[in-house]
Design brief:
This is Glucose-methanol-choline oxidoreductase N-terminal domain-containing protein. Belongs to the GMC oxidoreductase family. Keywords: FAD, Flavoprotein, Oxidoreductase. With 423 residues, this protein is α+β, with helices and mostly antiparallel strands. The protein has two domains: 5-35 and 71-108 and 158-237 and 369-422, FAD/NAD(P)-binding domain, CATH 3.50.50; 115-155 and 240-363, Cholesterol Oxidase, domain 2 (2-Layer Sandwich). The protein has eleven helices and 20 strands. Strands 1, 2, 8, 9, 10, 11 and 20 form a seven-stranded mixed sheet that branches. Strands 6, 12, 13, 14, 15, 18 and 19 form a seven-stranded antiparallel sheet that branches. Helix 1 packs parallel to helix 6 and helix 1 (15-26) packs parallel to helix 11 (405-422). The two termini are 20 Å apart. Bound molecules: flavin-adenine dinucleotide (FAD). Flavin-adenine dinucleotide (FAD) is lined by residues 11-17, 34-37, 66-67, 69-70, 73-75, 77-81, 179-180, 216-219, 221, 263, 365-366, 392-393, 403-405, 408.
Length: 423
């Protein structure tokens, strides 16, 4: 390994890492994917999720987010809501994604769920939201509805693992349980990485070399790596984390035992507050209610209806020297969090729910603002250390709304074109 040189090394096999590896290896480039996690889960189960989920605390008030450390990254446990990239916003950063978006839409199953896949809970929520005057709409999802006879199916969601498998079929190399600890540099260029490979009960340090290195380790890992490379100002403006609540109640007699896809519908209130369907599959419902010590809700899956609240917070907090993130909220954020929670309760009450509670303040699976296009990376997503690029959730602009996965696939395709031209 030490003397073998690759065209590109991608650090992490999430949405961006997998897409770049697939695009590059299909064009005959020699690609190495280094992935910190293993292969779990082969299918969705409580043990499978527990084995890959990594909870990351963000502050003093039990604020936390979660990521998946496994091949395919966080899409192994995401909800598959597919908001489209804001093309104008990326254009303003010198990045043109229109053709990529068109290609992605042609290739992937992106559509709103058909009515037959909306379960009793989702239908009840929609009825009460509309009665209260909300513009409650279906979201597009990365779900192949033709694979779902009646309701939820984990396998029907598109996942980055699909692209990892395509990359492997096209000749890419994947090393799992390989945690990159350092970017190797020579002069002002990145020439490879050093990684720790787990082996039995121990581990060993190895190096790998390439013409190009892409950090795609996710929004929680990449900023620290980039700062360690000496790139100035990473994290200087703080970060956003889209905080919010899951609010749940019991609607006696609803009795919809079927499982649906969480996030299938939502609405936007004024001032950056979003409410959505938070009716998770059974496999997530159980540990969530257990952690909240809500046994009645735990045992009444069919009657338990959930509303998610998400608030667009401003930049703030800090990235500590040890890589930990800390964030508090200002008065405006707090007012909107309270307003969103109150509206979620009103929606549940309207739906006939009793025993309403929230599971505590969480950061929605998206942190950002630490790395900025135009400041830390250029339009080719390259850093001031030549040959070192960044492509993952950490570069999503802080004024972008909505879910990031489709934008990330497009950004990864955009970067792949530049890498192909340069290798
Ligand atoms: C519960 C949940 C629900 C979500 N729902 C949605 C949704 O509905 N729609 C949507 O668009 N988005 C959703 N997201 C967000 C979405 O999953 C992520 O934004 C997206 O997967 C991020 O992709 P990425 O390429 O940035 O990195 P990731 O998916 O985080 O992948 C990074 C990879 O790098 C690996 N890695 C980390 N450090 C190292 C290292 N040092 N060395 C080697 N490898 C490393 C990790 O193990 C991981 O595999 C959700 C997230 C969560 C957690």
């Amino acid at each position: 390994m030490k003397h073998e040189e690759f065209d590109v090394i991608v650090v992490g096999s999430g949405v961006c890492g997998a897409t770049i590896a697939r695009e590059m290896s299909r064009q005959g480039r020699k690609v190495l994917m280094l992935e910190r996690g293993g292969s779990a889960p082969a299918r969705e189960s409580l043990a499978g999720i527990a084995g890959i989920a990594d909870e990351v605390r963000l502050g003093e008030r039990k604020l936390a987010t979660v990521r998946a450390l496994t091949t395919g990254g966080s899409t192994s446990m995401y909800f598959a809501v597919a908001n489209m990239p804001p093309l104008e916003l990326f254009r303003a950063h010198g990045i043109e994604l229109a053709d990529d978006l068109e290609a992605v839409r042609r290739e992937l199953p992106i559509a709103a769920l058909p009515d037959r896949l909306l379960m009793a809970k989702a239908r009840r929520l929609r009825a009460s939201a509309i009665e209260l005057g909300h513009d409650w709409r279906k979201n597009e999802m990365l779900i192949d509805a033709s694979q779902c006879d009646s309701g939820y199916r984990y396998e029907a969601k598109w996942k980055a693992l699909d692209y990892v498998e395509d990359a492997l079929a096209a000749g890419a190399t994947l090393i799992q349980r390989a945690m990159v600890v350092r970017v190797l540099r020579e002069g002002g260029r990145a020439i490879g990485v050093e990684y720790r490979r787990r082996k039995g009960f121990g581990s060993e340090l190895r190096q790998a070399y390439a013409k190009k290195v892409v950090l795609a380790a996710g929004e929680l890992a990449t900023p620290t790596m980039l700062r360690d490379c000496g790139v100035d100002g990473v994290g200087a403006r703080g970060f956003f984390c889209n905080p919010g609540y899951g609010v749940y109640g019991l609607v006696p007699g609803l009795g919809g035992g079927e499982e649906g896809f969480v996030g299938s519908m939502s609405c936007h209130l004024d001032d950056g507050i979003e409410l959505g369907d938070a009716n998770v599959a059974r496999v997530l419902h159980r540990p969530m209610m257990l952690a909240a010590l809500r046994f009645r809700h735990l045992l009444s899956y069919g009657d338990c209806v959930g509303v998610g609240v998400k608030v667009k917070d401003g930049l703030g907090g800090r990235l500590e020297a040890d890589g930990r993130l800390r964030k508090g909220f200002d008065h405006r954020d707090q007012v909107r969090l309270d307003q969103g929670r109150r509206e979620a309760v009103r929606l549940l009450e309207r739906a006939g729910a009793k025993h309403i509670f929230d599971v505590g303040l969480r950061a929605a699976g998206r942190i950002g603002g630490l790395i900025r296009i135009g400041e830390h990376v250029d339009g080719k997503l390259e850093t001031s250390l030549r040959g070192l690029h960044v492509c993952d959730g950490s570069i999503i602009p802080d004024d972008m709304r909505g879910t990031p996965t489709v934008s990330l696939i497009c950004l990864a395709r955009h970067l792949s074109r530049h890498l192909l031209a340069a290798t």
